[in-house]
Amino acid sequence: VGTSCVLTCPHKSNITMVTWKISPEVGGPCTLGYRADQNKTGSTNCRGSTSWRFRPDWDPALEIQQVGRAHEGNYTCEVVATEGNFHKTYHLTVLVPPKLTLYCDDHGNPVCEAAAGKPAAQILWVPESNSTPKEEGHDKGTVTVLSKFTAHSTNMTNTTCIVSHPAGNQSKSIAC
């Protein structure tokens, strides 16, 4: 989320035509095209954040600025060249890092929350805990994971919550 994404296309010499067909999971399809004989580009129903990376006759790559969940979907590049026709398809999935919160509940137990991540985060404790995380799904495909630390001994002073996620790992410590 929020970064730039570049999808490459088979680069061939003597390109006749390049077409990007975009089918987002939300919203209507979009097409970007380039015709070499007219040195002309065109688009149908494409947003401003999705465009050619450079000039398509030099590099037929597609660039998505400020990637968001609305960009998820299938992206297919078709290159027509004197060597033949070439296709490459991507399925774009957007990772959303969870927001980590660590607090003490009313009974003095540490509680770790990894809110609104995509996909769901994994929560680990140091020292180890045999707690079972609870997951709550949200309407935009994000998931909140909640885990309560269950101590093996009562003389614990400091516990650390480690949140593991494809968009990056985070940790926080607390003494309850």
From TrEMBL:
The UniProt record lists the keyword Protease? no
Q: Which Gene3D superfamilies match?
A: Immunoglobulins
Kindly give the PROSITE patterns that the UniProt entry links to this protein: IG_LIKE (PS50835)
GO MF terms listed in the record are: signaling receptor activity
- UniProt-listed SUPFAM superfamilies: Immunoglobulin (SSF48726)
- Annotated Ig-like domain ranges read 60-175
Q: How does it sit in the membrane?
A: Single-pass membrane protein
Cellular component terms per the entry's GO annotation: external side of plasma membrane
Record's InterPro entries?
CD200R (IPR040012), CD80_C2-set (IPR013162), Ig-like_dom (IPR007110), Ig-like_dom_sf (IPR036179), Ig-like_fold (IPR013783), Ig_V-set (IPR013106)
Gene Ontology BP annotations: regulation of neuroinflammatory response
Its keywords, alphabetically, are: Disulfide bond, Glycoprotein, Membrane, Receptor, Transmembrane, Transmembrane helix
Where in or outside the cell? Membrane
* Superkingdom: Eukaryota
Q: Does the keyword rRNA-binding apply?
A: no
State the similarity comment. Answer: Belongs to the CD200R family.
Q: What is this protein called?
A: MOR1A protein
Organism listed in the record: Lophotis ruficrista
